[in-house]
């Protein structure tokens, strides 16, 4: 049964497309600007350089998102993918930046992207390492890793402070969550599909009335800013290139898992050739972003939750999101306005979006063959992934390269699932791309039937 309101190649009306594209932008914008802000703050860069990093990240994310959705020749998966700067590269970027500055980060990013570009040509072979039980583990770990992000938003910020978990923050988040649930469950057509952006808009209006919106970022933002390619220059330290190459390998594993989740959400069979085009766009896009002066790019998992929640899988909608992100890079004041949305408002909507990915993963786990071997793969992989997610300090005393590989619960869970699937005896016959039956995503409207 078809659960999608709009399929991958459908073109909704312009007004509908704009609203739906705005939802994806709201889900991604915080993550896109967070990486340059974190790197800039830790490296103690001047304010103008941090602004240049943020603008380049938005512009690069927008352009690469359009390419990923629309495709140019062999580049681009032609599915609704939002691209953005990835936290998987933050550790490497900071270590390089302390010694070689932003020029070293960008040069290492450019050189390291070759790993992902070359690796993309082996995706048909890599795809065989991801049978259904492995894919189910990865999708579940994506959801488990994202839900705490939404919880921190709902509580008022990432690092616990005076306002973390304040009743006002939790009340706003629950209010927005209730609105989104009501709109998805009882709304029809565009109302249901636009539940996230409507819920955020109502929550924002309430925060405005309560005086909880800070407009200082809008007052400081420039109205228009041209991109400044090679503004920071480039250098190519061998140690930095190695660190970035390692981060690209980890990102390739995470991106593969995200594409698997995307395939389930969009009702698309995720064959090796599709993975090749998508990962190639990640690599080429990261190389392009480095010339703009932005950190490396990767496919955002959180936007898969938007698709699962709304049933809107149109790649043309997300291509418009790319246009919006690019405009935010050229007109910083636009991005600054979006940044004024209080985090509890985003947390209420984000909790629903990210939990939908987890729900899809649980549904996929329910369809795997239930035997001792599969149970071991699932239990050990999710257990190890949760271990580093819940207690990241677990790896603090290990060598830095171990942190780079296993610092993410998604990559840890994926690596463990792939390894266990290969080494445990009695491995079932591999499923080929043309024989695979991709499970359908579970939408909110289907929950009442479970």
UniProtKB/TrEMBL annotation:
It is found in: Cell membrane. One of its GO terms (molecular function) is xanthine transmembrane transporter activity. It comes from the Bacteria. PROSITE patterns: XANTH_URACIL_PERMASE. The chain crosses the membrane at residues 21-43, 49-67, 79-98, 104-122, 134-154, 166-184, 191-213, 241-262, 317-339, 345-362, 374-390, 405-424. GO terms for cellular component: plasma membrane. The keyword Nucleus does not apply. Keywords: Cell membrane, Membrane, Transmembrane, Transmembrane helix, Transport. Belongs to the nucleobase:cation symporter-2 (NCS2) (TC 2.A.40) family. PANTHER family: PURINE PERMEASE C1399.01C-RELATED. This is Purine permease.
């Amino acid at each position: 049964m078809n659960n999608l309101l709009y399929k991958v190649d459908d073109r909704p009306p312009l007004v509908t497309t704009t609203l739906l594209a705005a939802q994806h932008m709201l889900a991604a914008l915080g993550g896109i600007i967070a990486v340059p802000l974190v790197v800039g703050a830790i490296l103690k860069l001047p304010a103008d350089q941090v602004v240049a990093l943020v603008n380049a990240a938005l512009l690069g994310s927008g352009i690469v998102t359009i390419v990923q959705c629309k495709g140019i020749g062999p580049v681009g998966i032609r599915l609704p993918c939002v691209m953005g700067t990835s936290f998987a590269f933050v550790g490497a970027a900071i270590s390089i930046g302390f010694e070689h500055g932003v020029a070293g980060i960008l040069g290492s990013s450019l050189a390291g992207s070759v790993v992902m570009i070359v690796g993309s040509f082996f995706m048909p072979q890599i795809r065989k390492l991801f049978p259904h039980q492995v894919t189910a583990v990865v999708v579940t770990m994506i959801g488990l890793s994202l839900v705490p992000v939404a919880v921190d938003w709902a509580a008022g910020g990432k690092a616990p402070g005076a306002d973390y978990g304040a009743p006002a923050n939790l009340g706003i988040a629950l209010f927005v969550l209730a609105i989104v649930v009501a709109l998805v469950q009882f709304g029809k057509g565009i109302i249901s599909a636009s539940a996230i952006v409507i819920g955020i808009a109502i929550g924002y209006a309430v925060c405005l009335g309560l005086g909880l919106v800070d407009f200082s970022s809008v007052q400081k933002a420039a109205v228009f800013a041209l991109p400044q390619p090679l503004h920071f220059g480039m250098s190519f330290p061998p140690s930095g290139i190695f660190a970035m190459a390692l981060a690209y390998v980890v990102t390739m594993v995470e991106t593969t898992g995200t594409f698997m989740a995307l395939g389930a959400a969009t009702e698309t069979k995720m064959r090796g050739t599709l993975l090749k085009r998508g990962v190639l766009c990640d690599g080429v896009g990261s190389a392009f972003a480095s010339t703009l002066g932005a950190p490396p790019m990767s496919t955002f998992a959180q936007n898969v939750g938007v698709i699962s929640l709304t049933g809107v899988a149109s790649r043309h909608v997300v291509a418009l999101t790319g246009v919006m992100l690019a405009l935010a890079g050229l007109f910083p004041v636009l991005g600054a306005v979006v940044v004024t949305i209080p985090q509890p408002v985003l947390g209420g909507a984000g909790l629903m979006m990210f939990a939908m990915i987890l729900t899809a993963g649980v549904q996929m786990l329910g369809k795997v063959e239930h035997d001792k071997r599969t149970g071991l793969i699932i239990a050990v992989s999710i257990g190890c992934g949760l271990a580093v997610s819940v207690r990241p300090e677990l790896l603090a005393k290990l060598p830095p390269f171990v942190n780079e590989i296993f610092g993410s619960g998604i990559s840890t869970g994926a690596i463990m699932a792939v390894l266990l699937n290969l080494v445990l005896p009695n491995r079932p016959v591999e499923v080929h791309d043309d024989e695979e039956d991709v499970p359908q995503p579970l939408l909110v409207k289907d929950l009442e039937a479970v």
